[in-house]
Amino acid sequence: MGTEGDSFPLMEVNTSDPEASEPWDYVLVAERRGRRATGQAHRQLQFLEELKRKGFRYKIMEDREKVFFGIRAESRIFDLYRTLLMEPEGPGTRTQPAGPAPIPASTRIRIVNFVLNNTTAAGDTLDDLVKSGVFETRFVLHKGQDDLRKEWAQWRRVLRPQPIDNIRDYFGEKVALYFAWLGWYTYMLVPAAAVGLLVFLSGFALFNASQISKEICEAHDILLCPRGDHSRRYQQLSDTCTFAKLTHLFDNEGTVVFAIFMALWATVFLEIWKRQRARVVLHWDLYGWDEDQEEMALQLINRRDYQLRLHQHSYLRSSVILILSVLMICLMIGMAHLLVVYRVLAAALFNSALLFQEEQVTTAVVVTGALFHYVVILIMTKVNKCVALKLCDFEKPRTFSERESKFTTKFFTLQFFAHFSSLIYIAFILGRINGHPGKSVRLAGLWKLEECHLSGCMMDLFLQMAIIMGLKQTLSNCAEYLGPWLAHKCRLMRFKLGRASGDPELRDVQHNYLLNPVNTFSLFDEFMEMMIQYGFTTIFVAAFPLAPLLALISNLVEIRLDAIKMVRLQRRLVPRKAKDIGTWLQVLETIGVLAVIANGMVIAFTSEFIPRVVYKYHYGPCRLGAQPAVDCLTGYVNHSLSVFYTKDFQDPVQAEGSENVTECRYRDYRDARDYSLSEQFWVLLAIRLLFLILFEHVALCIKLIAAWFVPDVPQSVKNKVLEEKYRALRDKMCSSSKSTDV
């Protein structure tokens, strides 16, 4: 509830009282015991008298524990702003209405909020008085929300359209644009979820028909080398049959098509959202609204000797912020290394404690590692928010909106690395720096680094995505609803047991006080949650095609959950004016570009798509032409496994049954003589890099073409703006010609 550049200040004093039946605009709360303390009541009255001199009316209401100060601005207090408020905010003519138009409720609250936050009594602002305990809190009363309760804040309305105009009238443009964007995002997830589910289910059609799965399931005579310190026996390749079939569900030819589709989807989603926003903003008469211009006008109305505060830039401050940001990013990357250490130590612990069978240790490590990472995310979210706030304060932004924009950029950057660092490690590092059997890379010289799953690293990435996204959606939604609901119920029970009032006016104020408090970050946190979800939905979606489906289900719940929370469980948010979603649009565009790069790298380096294609046309039976009687991937499994001779183990005792086995196989492309990287490895690496370059360029070109093909602003909106400008010029010309004739 800090001072905001899009609020309206007060300049002159009006003294007429409003009608007694009119509700209070704002309520201040203080402890009843605190009023008896030396100076507390005096400072409260000083502030209230200052408000009275500015044209406010207040009333003191008490119960057994709290003192409530109802505050309302008289009707004449807004006369000074009538011209500014009732002036059309679009590009149309600027004509004054015949009579005074009523002040919208959201605008009225913004005016009162600005005045309260800019009123000083004995050098103390309201924020200073709240921090020093003179007032406990302040809030806006809920009033006139019955329509939103019936049409919006109910679970049975989950599939109904949202009343965006009603949301705007009650909560302001900022909140309304958030729900308009969230509704459009949810609507656009339907085709993405359908295609992702189709790609996933297409794997079931080939569940038993895949040549690679057949070869793995029939490979009873191929032994895999012991994997890590927790596995000290040779394992038949056929034991991985089930996981090989499961991996084919999301690592198939449709993965590439789906990744390109999601790149196109992300672009179309943003471009059509820009068109939707333009229509909504024109409908609200905010198309020509300029935040900086309004902020300057309001400051001049508030104080005629106001001096313009110019934009400032300090290379020293920027350098310090950059260095601190890089250090924090390094800390996020260090959290990923901490996950590596945990997975290595957990594997040794699970094996030594005999908690799992040897073949279950890898799966247990992956699952518990994802849970560990989720806990780290929760902790680092609080740390990142504090760091981002400190960096913003150090940068000294000019206005509240500029501060919010800078904070958004910094906080999202830190959150991105906190959420996706472990996925980057699993997708591109896990199992690639481990060496080979007989010469393994060890952590601190003691513990062998973790290997990928027996069926490949795509299974690890799939499980990590599924667990983190599933937990974040389910647990976050449950905590987001149950937390405020339980807190409100507990406060309500204590209130009923203690100090229920028979006065209807006081009872209404008490009811609003018992609702959960809101702050500056209430709406910001909702946006951040959706941005992270959008990242999971697009980045690494090639490894988890069910991500859009989970996001769709989550959003259907999220919309009504937020509605119920804002209307029924929380105090009323102070409305804010806006004509777009601000910096979040640049965040969405950045995520779209990162998604193209990440999915291209997943297909090129993590999945088996490139090795399968290269084998099919370069090494396999179809290299000289298609043969109808033979599957082109016949022999791929044997080709993709390198040979290791057991006599070369540095510690043969570690491998059970080594006296009966002369060779074993492992996933890599190495020469059997000296275990150096083979020719096939370098051929594959070159083709992977070539595919990555081609994929990214094709996907980015598709994004650019789609962005060009779908204009940001509909022609109808452009024509409407053009007609308004033309009408304004015609009216001015007619007025000028009449005055000339006179």
TrEMBL record:
Recorded hits in Pfam families, A to Z, give:
Anoctamin
Q: What is the native source organism of this protein?
A: Vulpes vulpes (Red fox)
Membrane-crossing residue ranges in chain numbering:
175-201, 255-273, 319-341, 361-380, 411-433, 531-561, 581-605
- Places the protein is found: Membrane
Which key words tag this protein in UniProt?
A: Membrane, Transmembrane, Transmembrane helix
Per the database record, which ranges form the Anoctamin transmembrane domain? 167-723
Say which family it is in: Belongs to the anoctamin family.
What is this protein identified as? Anoctamin
Task: Quote the gene name from the UniProt entry.
Answer: ANO9
Highest taxon above the source species: Eukaryota
The record's annotation in InterPro entries points to: Anoctamin (IPR007632), Anoctamin_TM (IPR049452)
Q: How does it sit in the membrane?
A: Multi-pass membrane protein
Keyword Cell division (UniProt):
no
